[in-house]
Design goal:
Elements (H helix, E strand, L loop, with lengths): L2 H17 L23 H8 L3 H9 L7 H10 L4 H14 L16 H9 L5 E4 L5 E4 L1 H6 L13 H7 L3 H4 L3 H18 L4 H13 L1 H9 L7 E8 L3 E11 L7 E6 L5 H12 L19
Antiparallel strand pairs: 1-2, 1-5, 3-4, 4-5
Length: 300
């Protein structure tokens, strides 16, 4: 298979997955009286909605056509009712499939610059950490690592947010909305896989999660793509209790794929107090949270 066919196949997978998610009713098409054997839209229905020939669309899905025009891509995006992140992903897939010479893969750097590490310290007590494009935790301030309760038990090279969410036994209790967190992790990796499917760091991580987590495998088949750079998360933390924090992801120039993820809470709120306590406890490794009816046993 040529590189163009490979990327064309990835484009086809995405189109097929999204086509299966759109019902005739959502597309303002008559449903008819008979039983539909195809989930979502049929190929011919999508082709008509996008204003292209059925044969041409079929070739796109099969990876036989790899150079759709921007107008065709936009028409397919409208017909598939894609959200902005999904539209961007479709355009990226189409652009990569059309390249005459694929770009050589690059080895992602795991090195975090000293200035970024200093920035992490200056953000204290706010939890913050730096992640790679596949969400490896490359550096963190004390509260940042402690926020992901239990991840510090793993060797540094195994600390990955997606691996933690799906494979660490503490993750389901830590994230109040674990399902949403899990979907976000998979959607991020799916977007990366669409544009760089052979990246060794990505294939190793995805292969491990497909093998070890049925939940990951189920979500992976959905082919959702989304990048969330800000929002709120609620934690049920074993050391500081329940807290809701805002978060913001910042791209770090100079180290491709690296992002700094910082959490924050309004000063004077219980959430901010919990963050400050989390930062303090990070320097007390023998601390264990009190069980009901006992006193806290933080070491001095």
């Amino acid at each position: 298979m040529t590189p163009q066919q490979q990327y064309g196949t990835e484009l086809g997978r995405f189109l097929r997955a999204r086509r299966a998610r759109v019902t005739p009713g959502q597309a303002s098409l008559p449903t008819g009286a008979g039983l539909r054997r195809t989930p979502g839209l049929r190929r011919e229905e999508l082709a008509i909605l996008a204003g292209i020939s059925i044969d041409y669309y079929a070739r796109l899905e099969r990876g036989k056509e790899t150079r759709p025009s921007p107008s065709v891509v936009d028409a397919l995006a409208r017909a598939l009712l894609l959200e902005p992140d999904e539209v961007d992903h479709l355009r990226s897939l189409a652009a990569i499939a059309a390249r005459t010479a694929p770009e050589p893969p690059t080895s992602p750097s795991r090195t975090v610059r000293p200035g970024v590490k200093l920035l992490l310290e200056n953000l204290r007590p706010a939890p913050a950490y730096v992640v790679s494009r596949t969400n490896d935790v490359l550096a963190a301030n004390p509260a940042g690592l402690r926020l992901l309760a239990g991840i510090e038990e793993w060797p540094a090279k195994e600390r990955n947010v997606a691996r933690f969410v799906f494979l660490h036994p503490a993750a389901r209790d830590l994230f109040v909305d674990w399902g949403n967190q899990a979907r976000g992790c998979v959607a991020h990796l799916r977007a990366l896989a669409g544009t760089d499917p052979d990246a060794p760091d990505l294939t190793r991580l995805v292969g491990e999660l497909l093998l070890k987590s049925p939940e990951f495998a189920r979500l992976w088949k959905r082919y959702d793509v989304k990048n969330r750079s800000y929002g709120k998360k609620t934690f049920h933390h074993p050391e500081v209790g329940d807290l809701t924090l805002g978060y913001q992801s910042l791209q770090l120039d100079g180290t491709p794929g690296h992002h700094l993820l910082a959490y924050y809470a309004e000063p004077g709120t219980p959430d901010h107090d919990a963050v400050a306590l989390l930062d303090l406890l990070a320097h007390q490794p023998d601390y264990r949270p009190a069980t009901p009816g006992t006193a806290s046993s933080a070491s001095s």
